[in-house]
Amino acid sequence: MAELSGKYLVGVYDDDDTVLHAVPKLRKAGVKIKEVYSPFPIHGLDEALGHPRTRIGIAAFMFGVTGCCVALTLMIWTMGIDWPMIVGGKDPISIPNYIPITFELTVLFTAFGMVTTFFISNGLGPGAHFHPRFDLRSTDNKFVMAIDLGRNSMSEDEISRALKDSGAEEVNIKQF
Amino acid sequence: MHVTSPVREPLIQGGKTYADVTEDICRHVEGPPTKEWKIAFGLSLIVLAYGSVCLAWTWWEGLGVWGLNKTVGWAWDITNFVWWVGIGHAGTLISAILLLFRQKWRTSINRAAEAMTIFAVLCAASFILMHMGRPWMAYWALPLPNAFGSLWVNFNSPLVWDVFAISTYFSVSLVFWYIGLIPDLATIRDRATSKVSRLMYGTFAMGWDGSAKTWARYEYISLILAGLSTPLVLSVHTIVSMDFATSVIPGWHTTIFPPYFVAGAIFSGFAMVQNLMLITRVVYKLEDYITLEHIETMNKVITLTGSVVGVAYITEFFIAWYSGVEYEYYAFFNRMTGPYWWAYWAMMTCNVISPQLFWSRKLRRSITFTFFISVVVNIGMWFERFVIIVTSLHRDYIPSSWAMFSPTRYDIGDYIFSFGLFFTLFLLFSKYLPVINMAEVKAVIRSTSANLPTKIAGVAKVRQRGTAEPAFDKDKE
């Protein structure tokens, strides 16, 4: 999570279904929601918030292709070109024998590349725990909605009322 | 919206709220170590110390301290290696294959099973290093040109495939496990009262905040990691089996090995998961999360894979006779009636007969019986590898070089080392990390819980901390 600044309204919900239904209702009413924080994944919440679909899969595929090419290049060059070696009467470059290692390196590159991308794109990393948070209960049992007042044209009272109407049990103000 | 089929038994008992889940699972992490834990940890450290001494002597003196001879060149070392790798298959199977199959019961056991996988693979790797005799030469297995020219490792060799398979499997399993841990580490970080635990859990939670965007990406990469791990887990034991199957030793040179080894690996892995979970659920009072339903489901997997293994044994034997190859036939006949007949029949009894007892609903729902059978299965699977390795080698083509293998105290001591290592690591894990994936359990609780509470969030018992206090304030510290 990046650095936060400004004044925020923080709606605390008690139920994942309530928060999931509150999001489209609030957006329809014209409230711009910054983000919703929850202790576990809620299916459909990111679409409801209007987040674009993650492109991490494309990155994963690219890393996979890289791993596959690295493995094949390594084996073809070492076994077939740098020091040609005939094993078991087979051609120095015998692709079927390279399948296991090609597969393993493809998986290895995909997994590590994708996870590194995941860390970078979410701003996760050692030291990131210094970042401020809206409500610590969002990793336990509460669902926390953050609304940046600076980016909303509606007044604080109006948003606060809309949050209460949508089922929020608490509405707090948070200034960074 | 969320409909629970009445046919299926609930997976989470006791009408848990989200706050209850956090509370129940964090309790042992946050509390001081119990007396039982200290005793168990002390015992495993003693076992590890004894094993380390034996191992140190093995490396100092050389592999001559083992009972190997000119005929039986592989024995307990490779038996133990294959056994531990096999055990290490259940965790990734539970977390990856069952995720793809949308099996919700995996959420209560995947964390501990994956931890078990990682520790079991470490134990397996330790046998590779022992087997090398000169572990400081281990880097020779890597694709580096040798000192005298550019002769590389032989990429046609299954032993080199194994180096890549085991190390990929270990590191990808570790990553998968760690990704699953991050949200739970964040939960502990946000509950932590002491500065040290806030710093430790906070560092490893890497600033996780549980935003909708992060969760969407998390679910996406979990799915891809599961998709990658599924063929990976099957490939690892396939490649281990190729260490044998691509040789020309009668008894090893069979095409049935890959599926047969994979089934055996899952079989023994689930048995080990049962052993660990049956103890963990009682010690940490997690009976509401790891219920009889979970135990029964795992027993069904044990019966299925045990039956596959049984069919493989019989097929292998049939083909040895039907092929008309006398060396192959002799290898199998010798297993059954030769000097190692007891190992063969121990394997047959433990692996083929014992899992069939689980056809009885009463037996597969009995905790004592499950524990007993799980131990029996793991003994049987150890004997399977012993039978495959030692009985195939000990009577080769020249009767004058026929020999027997008997373990020395260092064979046994090095095996004990792996138990010490495994239990030390598992005990450390079970004390300092949540043994159940809290976030995943919370995600399935609504659809799988018995007596669902009206207010599902619940009230966090400890305290309601300030609304906006940072988890860790740099300026204050």
UniProtKB/TrEMBL annotation, chain B:
Q: What protein name applies here? A: Polysulfide reductase NrfD
Similarity annotation: Belongs to the NrfD family.
Alphabetically ordered keywords of this record: Cell membrane, Membrane, Transmembrane, Transmembrane helix
A single Gene Ontology CC annotation of this entry is: plasma membrane
Question: Pfam families attached here?
Answer: NrfD (PF03916)
The UniProt record lists the keyword Cell membrane: yes
What's its membrane topology? Multi-pass membrane protein
**Superkingdom of the organism of origin:** Bacteria
Q: Which residues cross the membrane?
A: 39-60, 80-101, 113-133, 159-181, 220-240, 260-280, 301-322, 342-359, 371-392, 412-429
Q: Which gene encodes it?
A: nrfD
Q: What is its main location?
A: membrane
